[in-house]
């Protein structure tokens, strides 16, 4: 566990450990939950599809392509759960493959009408 005060800035880093130096990592989706085994029922989105859902979410420059750095302000769920758990989905791509998901950044998906 990592203990923080409310509204304290949290800084996180995800590292890809691989002998292949031509890979990069991208933070696609991060959600928080008061339950470590349920990230569907009561969740709070920090980022989705590479787009910030929370105004405090920030993606920071990284020293290497195999490292992703991001942060947000600490919060709690309204029902005063004692803990908040974080689950993130990361994407691994070839470095400098500009057609890959890693280089697309924020992708807001628009739903189409079923009639069209």
From TrEMBL:
Gene3D superfamilies xrefs: Zona pellucida, ZP-C domain
Keyword Signal among UniProt keywords: yes
Keyword entries, A-Z: Disulfide bond, Signal
Superkingdom of source: Eukaryota
Pfam family, one: Zona_pellucida
Ranges where the ZP domain occurs: 1-109
InterPro entries per UniProt: ZP-C, ZP-C_dom, ZP_dom
Keyword rRNA-binding part of the UniProt annotation: no
Name of the featured protein: DMBT1 protein
